[in-house]
Fold these 4 entries.
Entry 1:
Amino acid sequence: MEPKTIPPLETVVILVRHAEKLVWEQGLCPEDHKLAKAAYVDDHQLSSKGWERAHALVPYFQHRGEMGEILQSFPLGGIIGQDVDLGPEPFGQSERCLQTVEPLSQATGIPITRFIKRDFAEAIEAVRARAEWKGRSVVVSWAHQMLRDWALALGVDPAEIPGKWPGKRYDLTWVIVPGAGADGRPQLRQYCQRLLYGDSDKILTL
C-alpha cells in the first residue's frame, strides 16, 4: 500500500485559545495550593471576562491592522471550534471554545465547524483538504494544551513553536501562513491581542 499523500497547506490558520474561565469559586484560589486542583470545579463556561474577550474578538479580526493585512489577502472562510464531547468517555466537555467564536460567527454569518478533541486528526485534514477554504483564512478556537499540536500537524518547524502555551495566557493569537517559512514550510507568527485590561504585550519565547 502506498503511503497517503499529505496535501500542502493552502489555508491561513489563525489559532486562538478559548477565552477566560472563572477558575475558583468567587475567583479565589484556595490558600493551600496543593489542594487547589482538587478544589477546582469546572462549569465549562466562559466567565464574564471571557465573554468580553469573545465579543472583542469580532472587531479585532475585522479592524485590527495586523489582522486586516492577513484577512485582506486571505479572506475569512471558516471558523472551527472544539466541540463538547458527549460520548461515554468524554475527552473535553468545555463549551468555552465554541462560546469564544460564537460572536464572530454571528457577526460574519460563517457557521462554526465543530470537531471534538479526539477528532483532532479530522480537523487537521479538513483544514488541508476543504476546497472552499483554500486561499482563505480559518479561525480555530481550541484548548491551549493542543495549540502547539496544531502548529506541528500543519507543518511548522518545531524549532519555531514555543514549547508550552502558559495556562494564564488568553491574550495571544498564532497565525500559520502557508509557504512563508524556511524551505517553503508554513510559518508561525505570534501576535498579542491587546484587547482587555491586563493583556500582555509580550509574545511567547521559544
Entry 2:
Amino acid sequence: MMKPRQLLCKTLLAVGCLQMVIVLVSGQPTGKVCPPVAGAPGCVCDHPDGKIDVRPLANSDGTPKYTNLTDPNKYPYSINPCTPFSVKGGCTNVFICQGDPHIAGEFYSIADNGTEKIYIDTDNKVYLYYTTSVRFAKIYLECDKSVTGTPQWDIKGDSAVVLHYEFTMKHASVCPGGFRGRGGGSNEIKGL
C-alpha cells in the first residue's frame, strides 16, 4: 500500500505529464499540408486556388525583415518568414527570434531553419508552421489585397498556450495566386 506522500507525488507526476502532453498536442499543426513547390523553400506552396509565395515578404540577406514586433506581454520578436537569420549573441539560423524584455541580451529561438511548412487548417485558414525542439509557431497568412506595402501584423506570442506562438501577417502577397509587389516598407515595425 502506498503512503499518502507517495500517492501525492505519483499524482503530481501524472498531472505534470498530462500538462506536457496537452502542450505538445496543442502545438501540432492542424489541417493538411499545402503541397510544396518542387525546388522552392517551405514558404511556397500550390494552394488549390493558386500558388502562395511568401518570399517577397522576406529578406534574403540573413537579416530579419521585421523587428521589434511586440506581443501583449511586451516580448519583442524578429521575423523573417522565408529565409533564416541569426541575432548576435542569441538566435542562430531561425525564422523567428524572441527577445526577453526583462533580461538584456536574452533571446529564444521560436522557429528553426528547415521546419517551415504551409498548412491549410480545417477552417481553410492558411498558415506557416515552424518548430524548435520545444516551441511551436504559426504565422497565419491573411489575404488582404488592399495591403501592398508593409504587412499588417497581429502578434499574440504565446499568450494563449505556453510555448505555442501565434502571429497573423496580413498582405496581398499571401493571397493564393499572389501579388507581384515586394512587400516593401520599413525593415522595422514597432508593434500594433
Entry 3:
Amino acid sequence: MEMASLLSLQEENQLLQQELSRVEDLLAQSRAERDELDIKYNVVSERSDSGQMASQSVQEAGLGLITDLRLAESRTEAALEKQAQLEEQLQDKMLHEKDLAQQQMQSDLDEADLSATWVPGGCCIRQASLQKSDRAGPGSGASSEAESGEGSGQQGPHREA
C-alpha cells in the first residue's frame, strides 16, 4: 500500500503541478491583458485630455469670436447712428442754404423791381440802387426817391405814362 499511496501522491502531485502551471499561465495572461488595457486606457485618457483641452480651446476661441462679433456689432451700430446724425445735419444745412438762397433771390428781385423806374416816354431806367442800399444797409430806409420812383414824377413799372 505504500506503493499505491506513493503513486497516488505522485499522481496528485503531478495533477497539482499541472494545475499550478495552468493557473500561472492564466495569471501571466491576465497580467498581460491588464497591462494592455492599462496602455489602452492611458491612450484613451490622453486623447480625452487633449480632446478636452481642444474642446476647451475651441470653447475659448468661440467665446473670443462672440466677444469680437459683439464689439463689431456695437461699433457698426455706433457708426450707423453717427452716419444718420451727419445725414440729418447735412439735410438741415442744405435746407438752410436753400432758404438763404431763396431769400437772397427774393431780395435781389425786390431790389430789381425798385431800381427799375419808368419815365414818361415809356423807357425803363435802371439806377444803381444795389450799391446805395448796400452802403446804407438793409432796412435802413435810406433809399432815394429816385430808386422808389416817388417824388420825381416817375411812375412804377406797372403804370403807363
Entry 4:
Amino acid sequence: MNQSIISTFLLFVLIAPIFGQMFYPKHKMTKKYFIITLKTVTWHEAFYHCRSIDMNLVSISSKAENDQIKQQIIDEGHIEFGQFWTSGTKLPDNSYKWLGIGKRVGFSDWFSGKPDNFNENDVNCIQILEKGKGWNNAPCNLKQHIICEQELIEYEYCNH
C-alpha cells in the first residue's frame, strides 16, 4: 500500500510540470513607470509614497531600462522638471543598492565625476538629473520629483 502511494506521488511530481506547461500560458515580467511631478518630496517620502500605492521607487537594471525612463520623461514633457528620485541608496561599504528590488546596482549611468563623496555622510541617495544628464548621488533630504514603477505580468496564449 505505501509503495503504491509513493509511486503515484513520484509519477505526479514528474508529470505535473509537463501538463502545467500545456495548460498555463507563458509569461514575462515588464515594468510600467509613473512619473509624479505634482510635488517634490524627500527620498524617504518618495519611497513610502510609491509603497503606499502598491509600487516601488524606480530601480534601473539595464541601459535599455534607463533609456526607456529618460525617453518617457521627455515624451511626457517632464524634461524641465529637474531631478527625480530612484530607489538607489548607498550602503556602509560605499556601494549602492536598489531598495525597490533589493539588489546591488550593476548597470549605472553616473554623471561625469559621480558618485562623489562631497559631504561624505550626506550623499546617500541616487537621483536622475535634469535633462537626462545621468545619475547623481545626493542628500536624501532634498526635495525631488518621483518615479514609481509597477511590475506587470504579460501572458502569451497559444492561438492554435
